[in-house]
UniProtKB/TrEMBL annotation:
It comes from Rosa chinensis (China rose). The keyword Transcription does not apply. Belongs to the 'GDSL' lipolytic enzyme family. GO terms for molecular function: alpha-L-fucosidase activity; hydrolase activity, acting on ester bonds. Residues 1-30 form the signal peptide. This is Putative alpha-L-fucosidase. It holds the Pfam family Lipase_GDSL. Gene3D superfamilies: SGNH hydrolase (3.40.50.1110). InterPro entries: GDSL, SGNH_hydro_sf, SGNH_plant_lipase-like. The keyword Lipid metabolism does not apply. Keywords: Glycoprotein, Glycosidase, Hydrolase, Signal.
Length: 385
């Protein structure tokens, strides 16, 4: 933008402000709510509603106990942010694309699987800890769903009622929450903090590449979560005990890498808005909302944010080989690693994942637009800034 254009646009904003303050109707209120007839979600365990469970590893009891009263394919005691999001749009909970039993994709589909990364991981389940369904594969699955769902709809009847209508693909909300495991893979794969940090641009490139391909298939409203404060999770603080802590007890350098990821993600979205001008991109600062739960838990009705509710052992109640739902032998008897008394006042569920109570808290904050760029509420996320 040239110098004179800057002055002109500053002048225009000044006039706009005058106009706003001198009239009783605030123009942003005039934005209509969007019609999002479907949701297509991409991500990891933060938003997996049953993909990894259906394909590889179902979580066992006490997962799901708070809301579903049984394991429900989610790595939580209950619902996830994506569940609250779907509900707030008046939709049923999203079916996992990989689930072949009883699914209904008429309101969209969920391609997220727990342990997914953006980049191809080195160690894939069962040889290692990461999901084979990394973001490139999730895109390929979306491609399949988009074309085959229309063939199935043509069969009519019950088949049609299980698949999204063709026009839903351009009207849908596309949601993303992925990247945390790319950082985790580096931290647990013996890379130094600096090496993980240095891998961030390549991770972000992988993200942008997939966004462009999903846009080419018709996505126009994209709601993108940044990554959370990984250094506040028991699986980091318990595994790297010598890490320097910040004033609230989170591993500082690990959070610095997450913040660097978020900075690069935000920049990438600025570029994507230029490259893909027909789309509305919303960057959602989930990091800040989650961090506030660690910083001021009491203020929001929570306690012990750094301690896993369901787990065993040590200061953080977390031991990777005796995790939530495992059966372990203590003093010769077998016991289930179970839940704490009151998960509704806890932030962390199992050392890696958040409780339903925390997910609801995060959703309530982010749906208002207060943590978004542009600052539009969820229901207006189809409007381009
Ligand atoms: C799939 O879900 C939609 C929306 O709830 C419903 O109208 C349709 O009947 C469902 N299809 C089946 C076969 O249950
Ligand atoms: C990390 O290093 C340790 C010790 O050298 C080794 O046992 C472990 O296999 C390494 N992990 C990975 C993922 O390379
Ligand atoms: C990560 O890299 C960025 C960009 O080079 C740098 O500004 C930041 O200080 C680095 N952070 C860490 C924790 O190494
Ligand atoms: C973690 O759990 C395993 C299995 O119960 C146990 O053998 C090990 O001692 C525990 N580690 C710590 C540090 O408590
Ligand atoms: C195991 O036995 C020891 C010694 O009797 C006891 O102090 C400890 O509390 C027991 N642990 C559990 C989990 O029951």
């Amino acid at each position: 933008m040239g110098y004179s254009k800057v002055i002109i646009s500053l002048f225009c904003s000044y006039m706009l402000i005058l106009h706003i303050t001198s009239s009783s109707v605030i123009p942003t209120l005039a934005l209509k709510d969007c019609e999002f007839p479907a949701i297509f979600n991409f991500g990891d365990s933060n938003s997996d509603t049953g993909g990894l469970a259906a394909s590889l590893l179902p979580p066992t009891t006490p997962y799901g106990e708070t809301y579903f009263h049984m394991p429900a394919g989610r790595f939580s005691d209950g619902r996830l942010i994506i569940d609250f999001l779907a509900k707030s749009l008046g939709h049923p909970y999203l079916s996992a694309y990989l689930d072949s039993l009883g699914t209904n994709f008429s309101y969209g589909a969920n391609f997220a699987t727990a342990a997914s990364t953006i980049r191809l991981p080195d160690l894939i389940i069962p040889a290692g800890g990461f999901s084979p369904f990394y973001l490139d594969i999730q895109y390929m699955q979306f491609l399949q769903l988009k074309s085959r769902s229309q063939l199935i709809r043509h069969r009519g009847g019950i088949f049609a009622s299980l698949m999204p209508k063709e026009e839903y693909f351009s009207k849908a909300l596309y949601t993303f929450d992925i990247g945390q495991n790319d950082l985790g893979e580096g931290f647990f794969g013996n890379l130094t903090i600096q090496e993980v940090n240095a891998s961030v641009p390549d991770i972000i490139t992988g993200f942008s590449t997939n966004i462009k391909k999903i846009y080419d298939l018709g996505a126009r409203s994209l709601w993108i979560h940044n990554t959370g404060p990984i250094g506040c999770l028991p699986y980091i603080v318990a595994n790297f005990p010598s890490a320097e802590k910040d004033e609230i007890g989170c591993a500082k350098a690990y959070n610095e890498v997450a913040k660097h990821f978020n900075h690069e993600l935000k920049q990438a979205i600025v570029q994507l808005r230029k490259d893909l001008p027909l789309a509305a991109f919303t960057y959602v600062d989930v990091y800040s909302v989650k961090y506030s739960l660690f910083k001021e838990p009491e203020k929001y009705g929570f306690e012990l944010p750094l301690v896993a509710c369901c787990g065993s052992g040590g200061k953080y109640n977390y031991n990777a080989t005796a995790g939530c739902g495992a059966i372990i032998t203590v003093n010769g008897s077998q016991i289930l690693v179970g839940s704490c008394k009151n998960p509704s006042i806890r932030v962390n569920w199992d050392g890696i994942h958040y409780t339903e109570a925390a997910a609801k808290f995060v959703f309530d904050k982010i749906s208002t637009g207060a943590y978004s760029d542009p600052p539009l509420p969820l229901k207006q996320a189809c409007h381009r800034s």
